[in-house]
Specification:
The complex is a heterodimer of chains A (343) and B (491).
Chain A (H helix, E strand, L loop, with lengths): L22 H4 L4 H29 L11 H6 L3 H7 L5 H9 L8 H15 L5 H15 L8 H25 L4 H31 L2 E2 L2 E2 L5 H8 L3 H7 L6 H10 L7 H18 L6 H15 L3 H7 L1 H24 L4
Antiparallel strand pairs in A: 1-2
Chain B lengths: L1 H10 L1 H6 L19 H32 L3 E6 L2 E6 L2 E8 L1 H25 L4 H4 L5 H5 L21 E8 L5 E7 L6 H14 L15 H10 L11 E4 L8 H11 L2 E3 L4 E4 L2 E6 L2 E5 L1 E4 L3 H4 L15 H6 L4 E3 L10 H4 L2 H9 L11 E2 L3 H9 L4 E5 L9 E2 L5 H13 L4 E5 L5 E6 L2 E10 L1 E4 L3 E3 L4 E5 L13 E8 L2
Parallel strand pairs in B: 3-22, 6-7, 6-11, 11-12
Antiparallel strand pairs in B: 1-2, 4-5, 4-19, 8-9, 9-10, 13-16, 14-15, 14-16, 17-18, 18-21, 19-20, 21-22
Helix pairs in contact in B: 1-3, 3-7, 4-13, 8-9
The chains are: A mainly alpha (343), B alpha+beta (491).
């Protein structure tokens, strides 16, 4: 990838009239497009994570009597009130429906798909025809899903197709998306969302881990909670390879939070965001690029300054909560620096 | 020789596919004999004939599917529902022969030139009104005449940069102008998309036929728009202003913006400061010099026109008046494509150019004139009655096809507000072979060529052929169940 290095820190709020031929100006996006790209990425990433979570929860997260453990999923997503209001029975099937089809639920695949589609429609002038057509068709498929499609026997296959859809999208981004500023916004959205989803996943599963007795130093191998967590993040096999004998809480959490090669670890996602922000600042200087970097630094410190022990002492939930807040703050700062139309 | 080839075409291969094809006394765009030019028809017929109806149907489904997947849709609003539809596509091309096209090209350019001279006159000295060539009240009392435009000098003195002129053919194959569209004419994207679709489904149908390419439409548009930029701007920044993703023609706007290499923006993406227009970007404000706007006059600037408009750019008219930004088409062109003014266009052509119209008008009765009203009321069963301000085929009466009750309703409307209507004889619109449930059958078509005008006029060699898909129907509008065809202009 070639990138122009610009010395100027100007990014002038108003470019000079006669000099409008400047390449720098040609490289700028309408702010509304930047926002739409960022959110397209977030929603597509969210869909993939939700599909993974649904699949794993339905397939693996059953207790000894085979009842799906949906309570914690609903609770941690902060969806308790809405879920109980819409589904007083609150069965596992209801929860699947709630997270897959229910467009009134902002953390459902249906909702995220519609939002991604709307953003793609806004971006239609910018994105490749292949990217657009894929999202257009994907959206129609999700829209057409009915209760019969999400029956337990079909759910895993359905989640597989949804993940495939997300991966096709990711491939098209990689292969066809022009790598100007817009590409940076896409990557920022994607990695911020992924970081956020990983914290949620940990939050959902961690109390199950904490509550289970350790067998000596290891988690009990016959319990599957720790597997569920790793599988939901597509990290089970990587974890086994990295830690073939040591399967304790510290190892699992350490892998999910701090592993430097695992694509969904907090550290990898957050460091990627940092690199992107820095390169964005160097390549397309704008006046307000400082704030997102400040927010990034705070988040980065939270990830380096934590030993496992201190994390357990503070309480994992509070720690994850802090990370989520910092991710949210960084996301807003990016929005204000680059997409705020009132600028 | 030419004749025998034509015979061959009609009597041989053509028969397999067109066995029951009957143009029914109308002029057929494909099969009507043209001296010495039947080679192309023969090739097309042979190639289509080899495929057969079932294969054509399969490909038709495939192309509709791909248009749907690509989201090449327009939005139909009815009963508070918004439905995305594809414009039905008929895969049998409409062919225009070189000689036919030469007349269209010259006629369209002539008309655009006259309309631009007319608009310049209306917004400056108004000679044509002063000397009574055109009734002044027809213009000055017209809602589409914009006093805000008076005295503004435009680049190349051009008001209508993008024009779509609707043409029809009678039973003898003569072309007539049905309507001038000089505000924000739409449909060019379908011309481009239809050609793409044809290439996908018939990779070799065009081979050796010599179809003129249309792929440079976006480039021509960009060039013409750039030529409107204020003096001294070396590398003009052109944008396309759209009402946004909920507009029924959004995908047309997308297609054109992409082909032009210009940003598609909404009103909220632009801001006026000190009578200059800027685009809000991720890196601050960037100047804009030319706006290809797909928003109607009424909505373009809430400070000047409708104050409740959320779509426009407050202050854009002031910037436009000062010459700091160009709007294409200019504001106030609607007075030239008004259906009542239409009747005077032949006069307008003679007045400014001292030429006979190359493309004649359809005979038109202007109901504001008492004699014309009386004639219209007496012949409602033979005439098409159109409201002057509407477009899209809404609110018109097709006399011969209408029920007695509908005709009576229009009798009342005409008497109540005669100035709002014109009437025209029902044309024996030409037909083209079209794939239908019952095989290949004749359906009525029209043609909208697109002309782009900067300092001179260029006519896209092709155009939008709209086809009335219902048997016998004369209404080709997409909002009324029409479809479209690829239009081949032969070199």
């Amino acid at each position: 990838m070639t990138m122009r290095q610009t010395q100027s820190q100007g990014g002038a709020t108003r470019a000079d009239d006669g000099a409008s031929t400047d390449l720098r100006i040609r490289a700028l996006l309408p702010a509304r497009y930047g926002d739409a790209i960022f959110w397209l990425a977030r929603y597509m990433e969210r869909i993939e994570n939700l599909a993974r979570m649904l699949d794993v929860t339905e397939s693996f997260a059953r207790d000894d009597r085979g009842v799906g453990n949906w309570r914690s999923v609903v609770q941690i997503n902060g969806d308790d009130a809405l879920f109980r209001k819409r589904y007083p029975q609150g069965s596992g099937a209801d929860a699947v429906r709630f997270y897959l089809l229910d467009r009134d639920n902002p953390t459902s695949i249906g909702f995220a798909m519609r939002a991604a589609y709307q953003n793609a429609r806004t971006l239609r002038p910018l994105i490749s025809t292949e990217m657009w057509a894929q999202i257009n068709v994907f959206n129609k498929e999700i829209e057409a899903l009915g209760p019969a499609d999400i029956a337990a026997s079909r759910l895993s296959a359905l989640c597989g197709r949804i993940k495939d859809g997300c991966h096709t999208h990711a491939g098209l981004i990689e292969a066809t998306f022009y790598r100007d500023q817009g590409w940076y916004f896409y990557q920022l959205g994607k990695y911020l969302e992924r970081a956020d989803q990983t914290t949620r996943l940990l939050d959902i599963q961690h109390h199950l881990l904490l509550s289970q007795p350790e067998d000596g130093t290891n988690l009990r191998a016959d319990r599957i909670e720790w597997q569920v967590l790793l599988r939901a993040a597509a990290g089970y096999h990587a974890f086994r390879r990295v830690s073939p004998r040591r399967i304790n809480l510290e190892a699992v959490l350490g892998f999910m939070l701090f592993d430097e090669a695992f694509p969904r670890s907090l550290r990898l996602c957050v460091r990627t965001v940092g690199t992107l922000l820095e390169r964005l600042r160097q390549t397309y200087p704008v006046l307000r690029s400082a704030k997102p970097l400040e927010c990034y630094d705070e988040l980065d410190v939270s990830l380096t300054d934590r030993s496992y022990q201190r994390m357990i002492e503070t309480g994992l939930h509070d720690y994850l909560d802090l990370l989520q807040q910092q991710i949210g703050k960084l996301s807003s700062a990016i929005g204000q620096a680059y997409f705020d139309a009132s600028a | 020789m030419a004749e025998s080839m034509a015979e061959g075409a009609r009597g041989g291969v053509l028969d397999q596919l067109f066995a029951n094809y009957d143009a029914g006394g109308f002029f057929c765009e494909l099969t009507a004999p043209r001296d010495g030019e039947d080679q192309a028809v023969r090739l097309i017929a042979e190639r289509l004939g080899r495929l057969g109806v079932d294969e054509l149907r399969r490909r038709a489904r495939e192309v509709e599917r791909s248009l749907y997947d690509l989201g090449v849709t327009f939005t139909v609003y009815s009963d508070a529902n918004a439905i995305d539809r594809i414009l039905p596509f008929d895969l049998i091309p409409r062919v225009l022969f070189a000689r036919e096209w030469a007349q269209i090209e010259a006629g369209v350019a002539q008309r655009v030139r006259a309309l631009n001279l007319f608009l310049h006159d209306l917004y400056h000295d108004q000679h044509i009104l002063r000397d009574g060539t055109i009734p002044a009240e027809l213009v000055l009392g017209n809602a589409n005449f914009r006093p805000e435009m008076v005295g503004i000098d435009l680049k190349h003195q051009t008001y209508i940069q993008i024009c779509g002129i609707d043409l029809v053919r009678d039973e003898r194959g003569r072309f007539f102008v049905l309507e001038d569209n000089g505000r924000t004419p739409s449909g060019a994207s379908y011309v481009l998309e239809n050609r793409h679709a044809m290439r996908r489904i018939f990779p070799d149908l065009m081979a050796d036929i010599g179809v003129r390419p249309i792929d440079n439409y976006g480039l021509k548009l960009q060039e013409a728009m750039s030529s409107l930029a204020p003096d001294g701007v070396l590398d003009p920044h052109v944008v396309l202003l759209s009402p946004g993703i909920y507009n029924s023609a959004y995908f047309e706007h997308v297609c054109l913006a992409r082909e032009m290499g210009a940003w598609l923006v909404e009103g909220r993406d632009l801001v006026a400061i000190d009578d200059r227009i800027y685009m809000r970007t991720t890196g601050g404000l960037v100047p804009v010099h030319v706006i290809y706007r797909r928003i109607n006059d009424d909505f373009i600037d809430p400070r000047v026109f409708r104050p409740d408009s959320m779509l426009g750019v407050p202050g854009v008219m002031a910037a436009f008046r000062k010459g700091n930004v160009a709007l294409a088409n200019a504001v106030g062109t609607g007075v030239a494509d008004d259906k009542a003014v239409y009747a005077y266009v032949p006069k307008i052509i003679r007045y400014y150019l001292d030429q006979d119209p190359i493309l004649p008008n359809v005979e038109t009765h202007i109901c504001r004139e008492p004699a014309a009203l009386a004639y219209t009321l007496d012949n409602l069963d033979k005439l098409v009655v159109k409201p002057v301000g509407e477009s899209g085929g809404y609110g018109l009466l097709v006399g011969p096809a209408a029920s007695a009750a509908e005709r009576e309703k229009f009798r009342g409307l005409l008497k109540a507000d005669p100035a709002n209507y014109i009437s025209q004889p029902t044309l024996k619109l030409s037909v083209a072979p079209t794939l239908t449930e019952a095989g290949v059958a004749a359906r009525h078509v029209d043609l909208r060529p697109f002309a782009i005008t900067g300092d001179s006029t260029w006519v896209l060699p092709g155009g939008l052929t709209r086809v009335a898909l219902r048997a016998g129907s004369l209404v080709v509008n997409s909002s009324q169940g029409g479809g479209s065809k690829d239009t081949w202009v032969l070199a």
